[in-house]
Design goal:
Formiminotransferase-cyclodeaminase, Chain B, domain 1, 14% strand, 4-stranded antiparallel β-sheet, 560 residues, alpha+beta, Alpha-Beta Plaits, 7-stranded mixed β-sheet, globular, Four Helix Bundle (Hemerythrin (Met), subunit A)
Length: 560
C-alpha cells in the first residue's frame, strides 16, 4: 500500500525578521516524519510561505505547533504588507500528494482546523474543498476586507467562524484552513514600476477578469445587470487568480498569480499569455519566479512546450528539459533557481545513495565488490537502459539532421518513446537490488515459534515473487525498446546506424540476462502454476528478442 503523504503550505505574516521565521520552522522540524521542504520569505509582502510534507497525522502536529508559535511571535496589529492577509498564520492548506484522496484530505484539514480553533483559541475558517458551505469555498470571500475588516465581520452571524472564538483577537487575527489541489504561486516580472499597468495586465489574464465599462475600459461608466450588480468581462486564463503589485525589494512590478489547476492552465501558458498582454501595453516581461515548490511534471511540460516551439526534440534528459524551462520562463531572473530545492519530487527524494546516482566506475566497482548486490539483475537493467539510450540518441541526432527539418517531430516522438524505456530501465536497476535485499531480510526473520515460522515463510514467498517480477519487467521493457532501435536503423540518420545496432545488442542481452534471474529465483517459489506461466512467457520474450536482434543487425549490415 502506498504511504499516505500530504503537503501543508502555511503562510505566516512575517517576511522580514528571519529569527521569528526560524523559531516557527523549528517547531516543524521537531516533529518526526515531517520534512520541511521550503521556506520562502518575502520582504515586500511581509509574508513567508512554508512547505512541509509527511504523513497526515504528523503534518497536523507540525502545523499546530507552527501556528501556535506564530500566534505567540507575530502581532497582526502592527502588520503591513502587499499581500492580502487576516492572520498571523494567514492560510494553512493541506494538499494530497500520494496514497490519499481529496475526501480523506478534507477530513484531515477539518481536524487541523478544529485543533487550531479549540486547542489554540484562534479564529478559523475552512475554505476550498474543506469548506462547510459554498459561500466559504473561495478564499477571497473568506478573507474579504482582510485583517482591518475582521473585527466587524466577526459580529455578523453569517461569518461566525467554523472553529475557535467569534471574538476579534487583534494579535493573532484569523486563520483559513483548507484542502486543495496543488496550487502554484507564480509571479511574472515586468520592466515597469507601474502597479497600475501591472494590474491592467492581471485583469486581462485572470479568470475573474475586470468590471465591464461603457466606452473607455478604465474610466467608462460601469455596466450593470438587471439587479444593479456590475457585469464582469472574464479574462483569458481559466483557473487563474492574479493581481499586480510593486516589489520594492526588486524595484519592479509583478503580476502575482495563483494557478489553481495546472492541468487547465499550466505555468508556460500563463507565462506566454502574460507576455502577449504585456506587449499590447508596451510592457516587457523580464522573467518570473516561483513561490514555494512545483511538481516535476509541470517543469517538464514547460520545457517540452518551449522545445516544440523551437522545433527541437523533446526526447532528451529531464535535467536538460528543466534547464530549457528555467531559461525560457526566466526563473533565474531574480535569484538562482535550484531544481533540487524547488521541484517537489526532487526535494522529497530519499537521501540514501542509489545505484543510478553512481558514476560508471563506481557502479562497476560496487558490482565487483564482495557484496551479492548489485548482481546480474541490476546489471541487465543497466545494459538495457544503455541500449534504449542509444536508440534515443539516434532519434535525437536524426531530429536535427540537416535537410530533415520537416521530420523533426517524427524523430522527436521516437526519442520520447526511447526515453520512456531507458528511464524505466534505470529505475529497475535499483528496484532489482531492493528486491534482493527484501529476500535477505525475509530469510533473516525469527523462526522460533510456529507463528514466527509461518510469518517467515509467508515473507520469503512474497519477497521471492517480487524478486521474479522485477527482472521479468526488465525483460519486457528491454524487448519493447527494440522497436525504437529497429525504427532508427530503418529511418534514422544513416551515419548512426551502428549505434542503433549496438542498442539492439544491449537490449537482447538485457532480456537474456534478466531471464536468467527470473529462472534462478523461481526455485524457492511454491506457487508452481505461477512459476510455469512466468517461465513460459519469459522464454517467448527471449525468442522474440533474439529474432528482432537478428532483423536489426541484418538491416545494419545492409547499410554499412
Amino acid at each position: 500500500m502506498t504511504k499516505q503523504l500530504v503537503e501543508c503550505v502555511p503562510n505566516f505574516s512575517e517576511g522580514n525578521d528571519l529569527s521569528i521565521i526560524k523559531q516557527i520552522t523549528d517547531q516543524i522540524e521537531a516533529v518526526d516524519g515531517v520534512t520541511l521542504l521550503d521556506v520562502d520569505p518575502g520582504k515586500a509582502t511581509n509574508r513567508t510561505v512554508v512547505t512541509l510534507v509527511g504523513p497526515p497525522e504528523a503534518v497536523i502536529e507540525a502545523a499546530v505547533s507552527a501556528v501556535s508559535k506564530a500566534a505567540e511571535l507575530i502581532d497582526m496589529s502592527n502588520h503591513k504588507g502587499e499581500h492580502p492577509r487576516f492572520g498571523a498564520t494567514d492560510v494553512c492548506p493541506l494538499v494530497p500528494i500520494s496514497g490519499i484522496t481529496m475526501e480523506e484530505t478534507v477530513a484531515y484539514a477539518r481536524e487541523l482546523a478544529r485543533r487550531i480553533g479549540e486547542d489554540l483559541g484562534i479564529t478559523v475558517y475552512c475554505y476550498e474543498n474543506a469548506a462547510f458551505t459554498d459561500q466559504r469555498r473561495n478564499l477571497a470571500e473568506v478573507r474579504a476586507g482582510e485583517y482591518e475588516a475582521l473585527k466587524d465581520r466577526l459580529r455578523e452571524p453569517e461569518w461566525k467562524p467554523d472553529f475557535g472564538p467569534a471574538e476579534f483577537n487583534p494579535r493573532s487575527g484569523a486563520t483559513a484552513v483548507g484542502a486543495r489541489d496543488f496550487l502554484i504561486a507564480y509571479n511574472v516580472n515586468l520592466n515597469t514600476t507601474s502597479t497600475r499597468r501591472a494590474n491592467a495586465i492581471a485583469f486581462d489574464v485572470r479568470e475573474k477578469g475586470r468590471i465591464k465599462r461603457k466606452g473607455n475600459p478604465l474610466t467608462g461608466e460601469i455596466v450593470r445587470d438587471d439587479s444593479g450588480e456590475p457585469v464582469w468581462s472574464p479574462g483569458t486564463l481559466a483557473c487563474v487568480k492574479a493581481i499586480g503589485w510593486y516589489i520594492e525589494e526588486y524595484g519592479i512590478a509583478q503580476i502575482s498569480m495563483n494557478l489553481t489547476n495546472i492541468s487547465v492552465t499550466p505555468v508556460h501558458i500563463a507565462f506566454d499569455e502574460v507576455c502577449e498582454r504585456a506587449r499590447d501595453k508596451g510592457v516587457r516581461v523580464t522573467g518570473s519566479e516561483l513561490v514555494g515548490l512545483i511538481p516535476l511534471k509541470a517543469m517538464l511540460d514547460a520545457g517540452k512546450y518551449f522545445l516544440r516551439k523551437q522545433q527541437r526534440s523533446t526526447g532528451i534528459p529531464d535535467k536538460v528539459i528543466i534547464k530549457i524551462a528555467v531559461k525560457s520562463l526566466g526563473l533565474d531572473d531574480l535569484a538562482p533557481f535550484n531544481p533540487e530545492e524547488k521541484i517537489i519530487e526532487y526535494a522529497i527524494a530519499s537521501e540514501s545513495e542509489k545505484l543510478v546516482d553512481l558514476s560508471v566506475k563506481q557502479f562497476v566497482e560496487e558490482t565487483a565488490s564482495e557484496s551479492a548486490a548489485p548482481g546480474g539483475g541490476s546489471v541487465a537493467a543497466a545494459v538495457g537502459s544503455m541500449g534504449a539510450a542509444l536508440g534515443t540518441m539516434v532519434a535525437n541526432l536524426s531530429s536535427h539532421k540537416r535537410g530533415w527539418d520537416d521530420r523533426w517531430e517524427e524523430f522527436s516522438d521516437w526519442a520520447e518513446k526511447g526515453k520512456t524505456f531507458h528511464d524505466e530501465l534505470l529505475r529497475l536497476i535499483d528496484e532489482d537490488t531492493e528486491a534482493f535485499n527484501r529476500v535477505m531480510v525475509a530469510f533473516g526473520l525469527p523462526k522460533g515459534s510456529d507463528a514466527e515460522r509461518q510469518e517467515r515463510k509467508r515473507a520469503i514467498q512474497e519477497a521471492t515473487r517480487g524478486a521474479i517480477e522485477i527482472p521479468y519487467r526488465v525483460m519486457q521493457k528491454a524487448h519493447e525498446s527494440m522497436e525504437v532501435m529497429k525504427a532508427m536503423v530503418e529511418l534514422g540518420n544513416p551515419a548512426s546506424v551502428s549505434d542503433a545496432g549496438v542498442g539492439a545488442l544491449c537490449a537482447r542481452l538485457a532480456v537474456r540476462g534478466a531471464y536468467l534471474n527470473v529462472q534462478i529465483n523461481t526455485g524457492d517459489l511454491e506457487d508452481k502454476n505461477y512459476v510455469q506461466d512466468v517461465l513460459e512467457k519469459g522464454k517467448q520474450i527471449v525468442e522474440q528478442a533474439e529474432e528482432l536482434e537478428h532483423e536489426i543487425l541484418e538491416i545494419v549490415a545492409s547499410k554499412m
